[in-house]
Records
---
Amino acid sequence: MDFTVGAEGEGLLLRTYLRRLHLSSRLISHLKAIESGIEVNGERCTVRRILHMGDIVSLRYEDSEQGASATPSPLPIEVLYEDTDTVVVNKPPKMPTHPSHGHHDDTLANALAYRYSGTPFVFRPINRLDRNTSGVVLVARNARAASILSDELQSGGFDKTYLAVCDGEFSGAGRIIKALRRTEESIIVRETCREDDTGASHAETGYRVLASAGGKSLVKLFPYTGRTHQLRVHLASIGHPITGDDLYGKASDLIPRQALHAQMLTFTLVGGERITLTAPLPDDILNLCRAVGLDTDSAF
């Protein structure tokens, strides 16, 4: 990709200019190491070069076949948005995000590798969902987009909204502020703890109850931090675990997974436009709501 240096870039070190393009130190190091990774006016140069207005900075961060990260599989996937830098999908329930032991060709990474067959594809998810959580997943389609979007996520620039069906009927809105840490017995399971406990990470979740019926509640959730299993642990900690969550609550005959859905994501595209994308509720959660008489009209 080529960038033309404007008046604001006059006299800048190339290294500084690249950082202003939101390239991470890791990506800059990678580009320095490959042939024609960084060029100015068609010539390879060091990042100490001084730039002038009108210079053409060329970056070659396209993926290669050697970097491909998943085997293509023809899996159905709903695309909510797509451009040359990003793709946003509505991940179905029970689909893992990454390949792992026992899941080599049935993941979101495999589905997108198939969608982009014919070009090298490296799977770079910006937000991640548990296998049994459905909804919006943002994936960067190149290394620069991954750097920009990851920086935005880390700086708190994403707004995320989830929907959950919880055990028990309750009402109102509030904020759960409880630190989380791994339990001593597991590297997976989390528990609430004090902020000053060893291994503690600050965690905050906002919630608003939309409807209650049949011993269940439909709840809108706003994770202000992004800790592992945060929503599941926080809801269980107030006595309303997510229905079907057999890790922090109990299994359910009404749904074979935790009834948790990443409904909405607001973020800034690489080009600078702020957008909001919404994933409709999947059938299994809709069927659960109908079975207990929960009104889902207020969910959207």
Note: The two ends are 39 Å apart (CA to CA).
---
Amino acid sequence: MYEVMMFDGGVYRHDEMVDLVEDIGGVVVQKSQMAQTMLITMAVPAEDSPAVKELARELGGEIKSVPLAGTEIAVVGPTLGRHHMPHPICDIAEQLRQYGAITVVMGLARGRGKETSQISADEKAIINEYDAAIFVLGNFKKCVEEKKHLFDDITVPVILVSGPMPEGLDEDCEGIVCGVGRKSERMRRAEEIEKLVEIADMTADIIRERRIELEEDPLFVHPAEVKQRLEEMEAVQESLRPAPVVLHLDGIRVKIPYHENREELEGLEVFGRTLGEVARITPSRISESSTIIRIMTRSEVEYRDSP
């Protein structure tokens, strides 16, 4: 199983870390330089992580845990109105970023009110493109409990965040964190920061379980390895959007138009196969300017190859 970690050290000799990652069969997910500081996010085989940590000590750097690196998570609020946004939803999203995740804040078109709250099929399809969804609801127990229909048909793990502890929702979501309701200010107090850490830790635990499940029937190719091939495409290199290639647990979001690049994406060579043979490539429901790539498992590829 791959372990995702971050090297935080100096620019000097950082290329030795990159070489080691490649030598042990790992992949550099992201590399960024700030002045004389180099941050390298990498996915390496778990059994080889001690060698990476030893080299980091030799280079005078440190290895940081980023349990949510390589994931994209949606933080969902009932509406984009001032009663629900931006606090504490933006604080939760920022905390998840510190754990390595790419986060997106989303407001439902008709989510407010226990009697009138709704979620459309398009909104559900968009949420299902992410690795997990955190629903941040309100301060009233009865209202939170009656909004559980918002989770119906959501196939990705759901974590509910609310003020009171609701009853009867344990089977509707993978985790519940109470004590965080609607607020009109940032979450800056010690007890509030503890809640943010609790949410991030619960998300990390759920993502870790999902990674273990994937290892039971591994993906044909790791998403980080496909990312390297995608970054060689001219359309990706010309993309002006931030983070044009975003890793998911079981695939990638690449921010280039699907219809204009479908043939090139399907023909991309990966381990002697074309990407179209080992992955499902579809347009994103968010925008036609993005494409979702879901990598098949080894058993799925074997089944497709069988006569």
Note: The radius of gyration is 20 Å.
